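note to self: the first set is below, dont mix up w the second
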Amino acid sequence: MRGTDASPRLAQTPFVHARRRRRAGLLPVLTTAVGIVLGILLPRIEAGATVPTARAGQVLVQDDPWIWRTYALAVGLFGFSMSAFLAMEGATEVSVALPIFAFAAALAVIGLIWNILTKAFVSLEMDSTLDTLVRSGREAIEALYPERPLPGNSQSQPVAPTGGRPVLWRRPQTTLQQLELRRLLRDAERSGSVAVFRVRVGETLWPGATVAEVSGSLDDDAVVASCVTGVNRTFDQDPLFAFRLLADIGLRAVSPAINDPATAVQVLDAVVGLLLVLAPRDLAVGAINSPSRVTRIHLDLPAWADFVGEGLDELLVASRGSPLVLARAKTTLSRLAKEVPPDRLSDVSSRLREVDDHLPAPRLEPGDGG
């Protein structure tokens, strides 16, 4: 029989079905490879419309538990399908519960994926992005700085000892994301040592940089092991991160390429809102005491001036040519000045004076002023 004559009959043979099964097995590998290639190439595209990296990153890697739940359910469904396929090999009948369960699980995965896609599209909206940053920044502030009566000088920080043995970072360049201090505190108490960190959470750890200075016999490896590192900054233990991202969005909004002063005004409101949350809080939390009430660890934490500068300075300079942004800055900073403790007022007043220096004088109509 000639090959051309046999081709219609081959469609019904088991050989074709076997090929389809192999293709089905190769499909996940192929799509994974395509996804990796596109993930590498698409971020390198420079032509056409763009979005801020911070906003794109929120779409790609959202800190949402539903993403991991969806992933877990999808993997579970895949494992169920493969094991059920192998288990019913050679069987002529199976329980109706099998396809019903598979269908229900597939619908659940589709629903969860739809939920994630909806959240991803919403996250591209500026209002949603700003709200997410403000909520994350507020959570970081509330977790780190207690709401308690301020000391006599709200700017004061415990004096950290100097002259200790430097502990160097001997690993590749990375970002300090968090500090895990429970074990380090126990080791410092046991050895009677004091560790003074010289790098803040959120800063870059360069090879050879001094991570901390240690007084006593505390092991260097214990200090390094307390550093949780990664590629990017996170909101955990990094209260300045929200201010940095908000300032970046505001700078892009007032840039000549975008020229969106309305968004810059929203950013100003968000920054001042976070400063209002921070203003009544005690920032002197850098001294970590052991159970014996001896300070064993000193942290390098941002002061009030750092928050004000990070959130406002670059944005105010870039907005000098935008009367709308400057006018809103005067309004919001005037409100902030009424709320801050007296020894934090100077950092706000200096920004107010800067705004007044560059705010255009009101235009006088004919007949005004006598």
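second set (the one i keep forgetting abt)
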Amino acid sequence: MDKKFDKPNNGALFAVKSKTNPIQPDYRGDIMIDLKTFEVVNNTIKVSLSGWKKPMSTGGVFLSLQAQKPYVKDESQPYQRKQEIQDDDIPF
């Protein structure tokens, strides 16, 4: 893995330039996953990936990746609607 992407839970995808078969991937790359960050259940983990397009110094772009725990809505907090403003409440 490139030194630039050896930070835990970060990686990159680069466009495949020598694609010779339509079933080959369009992008390839690596990501280093710190398993201590994620809950392992039955030898599997669920990872939420985020990606950002970034320019390469040689031209073109690549996708910078970050792995995180998936977002889980806190069901213990009740949903609160924003109070609607009534026209009568406006002082003008």
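remember for set 2: The mean pLDDT is 83.
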